[in-house]
Specification:
Length: 273
């Protein structure tokens, strides 16, 4: 594993309608207490603005109970979009997705979705067609102002260790308008050649954690993979808000959408605990 970690530290990880109520079924929380509360308090889902993509759309959604308990924050991508990509791969693109305004979802502010038609560096890890779903905790304007750093430099503005999960390591350089990426060397792609199907990335800039990023291959999405997976947690959280402890991948046969979401939130007041 040491050689793989050294390799990834030698390259840069390169890493856009009115909101309405939806019939999209939110993922069931793993907590029995949350499940009981949700049963007694109807869950409502609202979509963000739709972004047209290859015969379909991508859009965010937020599910919460009518009393305001946050249940799920996610992205819904039309089945047509992924089927078109399966046929020809298309061109790589990047889209900003806005959240609906009906619920307080602090600290999250927008999603930056990347389709990587040929994968990205480092190719021995992530060189296959996949999506990057960046759930940002800063504004789109602040993100766009992030300067890049060359791959032979380490970001001098890394957050204090307690704000990242134990074991995560920063990659060298900094991707402009995106940030510094942190990877988990215990993830499957580091253990087995070609093992990348899904992984969780953290991101930072200016001494703060600024995004959570599920990265998921097109093949994994289209071949029926589904489940709810743990997100490794830091010790402390700088900003107040609801933070997810899991992320979910599934296909919704009712809406014919592929869903990637963050779920099972825990409120943190911010600052050092």
């Amino acid at each position: 594993m040491a050689s793989l970690v050294a390799s990834i530290l030698a390259v840069i990880l390169i890493a856009g309608c009115e909101p309405n109520e939806s019939s999209l079924n939110p993922v069931a929380p793993s907590s029995g207490d949350q499940n009981a509360r949700a049963g007694a308090d109807k869950v409502v889902t609202h979509y963000g603005p739709a972004v047209p993509l290859g015969g379909g759309v991508a859009r965010t959604f937020v599910s919460a109970t009518k009393s305001g308990e946050l249940m799920e924050i996610g992205i819904a991508i039309s089945e047509k979009v992924l089927i078109a990509l399966l046929k020809d791969g298309g061109e790589s693109y990047q889209k900003v997705l806005r959240f609906p305004s009906q619920f307080d979802i602090a600290p999250f502010q927008h999603v930056l979705m990347d389709w990587n038609a040929h994968g990205h560096e480092p190719e021995f890890l992530y060189g296959v067609p996949h999506f990057d779903f960046h759930f940002y905790m800063i504004s789109s304007q602040a993100r766009e102002a992030i300067p890049g750093l060359p791959g032979n430099m380490m970001d001098p503005t890394l957050p204090a260790p307690q704000y990242l999960p134990v074991g995560y390591v920063p990659t060298p350089g900094r991707v402009p308008a995106m940030g510094t990426h942190w990877v988990d060397p215990s993830s499957p792609e580091f253990q087995t050649p070609g093992g990348f199907t899904r992984t969780m990335i953290y991101g930072s800039y200016n001494y703060e954690v600024i995004f959570l990023e599920p990265m998921i291959t097109l093949d994994y999405l289209l071949n029926g993979a589904k489940g709810t997976f743990q997100i490794k947690q830091p010790t402390d959280f700088a900003k107040a808000g609801n933070y997810p402890t899991q992320y979910s991948i599934r296909y919704d046969s009712q809406s014919k959408d592929y869903i990637v979401s963050i779920v099972n939130f825990v409120y943190h007041p911010g600052g050092v605990n």
